[in-house]
Amino acid sequence: MKTILHKADTRGHADHGWLNAWHSFSFAGYYDPSRVHFGALRVLNDDTIAAGMGFGTHPHDNMEIITIPLSGQLEHRDSMGNTGIISKGEVQVMSAGTGIQHSEKNKNSKELLKLLQIWVFPDTKNVKPRYDQKAFDLNAAKNNLVNIISPMSIAEGLNIYQDAWFHLGQLDKGTAISYELKNKEHGVYVFLIEGEVTINREKLNKRDGLGVTETDKLEITAEDDAEILLMEIPV
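^ thats the sequence. predicted structure below, dont judge the formating
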């Protein structure tokens, strides 16, 4: 087993006033040649957006984009005519494919919006752009792992054009669970949203990231109440 630990305070950081962004991988003005991507995982941004502010209309292509609100409400509009409000407990995906434009805004005029935005390289290029969002039962994630993202051929969670599996979990202190990889050739990138956990003897604190390869199973113990995101991806 091989691991790479990204402590929260080693991430790239940009404070634009209306946007306070932390980058687990190279993005925009932050570049670290050792942290460009983890396999098919290209971007993991931890964003806080000021009340009423957001990203104006901008383009994407040939990227799978996953957005996970942590608190607040995200207002989405895109060139396919989709509009929607996404809150905690919901997940949004876009397959940018041949090209899409969208805007993202903090719907609330008084509260901060916190979210994770994740980009994954697709396994199929130039597909017809698509959009989807889904609400997940957070109670089902209690001391468990709930599948939120899966490949296009799997009728579980939301689908993307990649052999990737994302799971969310909310663990009480003292809970021990395991995760078995769908494919032993894959790696897993774990992002600890809240709390403290130990994974295969590696300790993670809030907002730490851990990349794991050359293993077929993760053993996870919550040292404190924790919220965790597991991303299994081709490496």
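The domain at 138-234 is CATH 2.60.120.10 (Jelly Rolls).
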